[in-house]
Amino acid sequence: MLNYKQLHHFWTVARAGGIVRAAERSGLAPQTLSGQIATLETDLGVNLFKRQGRGLVLTETGRMVLDYAEEIFRLGNELEEALQSRATGRAVPFRVGIADVVPKAIAWLLLAPSMDLPEPMRIVCREGKFDALLGELAIHKLDVVLADSPLPPAMDVRGFSHALGESTIGFYAAPALAARLAGDFPARLDGAPLLLPGVEASVRGPLLRWIEAAGLRPRIVGEFDDSALMRAFAEAGAGIFPSASLVGEQLCRQGGLVHLGDAKGVTETYYAISVERRLTHPAVRAISEGAHAKQNFA
Questions:
Q1: Looking at domain 89-165+271-293, what is its CATH homologous superfamily?
Q2: Which of 18, 131, 139, 151 has the fewest Cβ atoms nearer than 10 Å?
Q3: 225, 132 in Cβ contact below 8 A?
Q4: What is the pLDDT of residue 90?
């Protein structure tokens, strides 16, 4: 069985860059640290360090062990923090990854129920590319990832996709641009400037197919990985903005946009991806239960 005290000594030496420096920082004798690491190497049957000049450097195996040690002691610190938070009544961290293609208003709508739990939560949001967030989920740096698509089958990450619900997709435009569009919907999209989500957005393909099936040829003037940036361009009048109808009222009220119509049959589905088949984290359960209770969500 792994001796975590010896692993901690290894971790201390590796981070300090040498036994002498680690001894100065830890207050332990160099001989103690050296002996503990030698015992760990013997127990594991590997060499963690090798001599280079007058110093020590990590072997390839040592670097791998260090990665695991970093994660082990990071989780230990988080456990200690969580227990202290419970004891003192402080908010417990709830770490959420949000794929950058998910509209910010949708992310808030989904996360809101986690703010009303009896046990106070401190939400830590990380926005980024879907693949990168899944990597952080796999090593437990995140509790859940919110995305517009399920976990890809080919992804080498153990996780489970929990459908939260879906929304139809509508088209929105700044008032000045909307006033220049002739005809009824969807014909008024023909030849009009259109903003599109980037290639990673799951709704992009269905939108383009809907446009083609309707015989429309809008001018694509911009493509955006970040939904908030696409909305900013739309509010400035740069082009027509496709977005979840679920937040359409907010877009019109706060962003001053005009609803032109909906892409019939095109929907966007939102998922909570976790390492658990059954949701046990109270904040993640609250998100799932809250989403299913909202109107327009499945």
A1: Periplasmic binding protein-like II (3.40.190.10)
A2: 131
A3: no
A4: 64
Nearest of 132, 112, 133 to residue 123 by alpha carbon:
112
CA distance 225 to 100: 7
Its pTM stands at 0.65
Fold of 4-85: Arc Repressor Mutant, subunit A (1.10.10)
SS3 264: strand
The residue with tokens 């269905």 is: 206
Local mean pLDDT, 10-residue blocks, the chain (298 residues): 88 86 85 91 91 84 88 76 63 85 88 82 87 84 89 75 90 95 93 94 94 95 92 95 92 92 93 78 81 58
Indicate if the alpha-carbon torsion angle 225, 229, 231, 236 is positive or negative: negative
Listed in order, the ranges of the chain carrying CATH 1.10.10.10 are: 4-85
> Which among 95, 48, 99, 47 is positioned nearest to 74, based on CA atoms?
95
> Residue 115's closest CA among 125, 104, 129, 130?
125
Tokens of 149: 């698509």
**In the block, which residue shows the tokens 């020590």?**
56
> Which residues lie closer than 8 Å to 212 by C-beta, 6 or more apart?
none
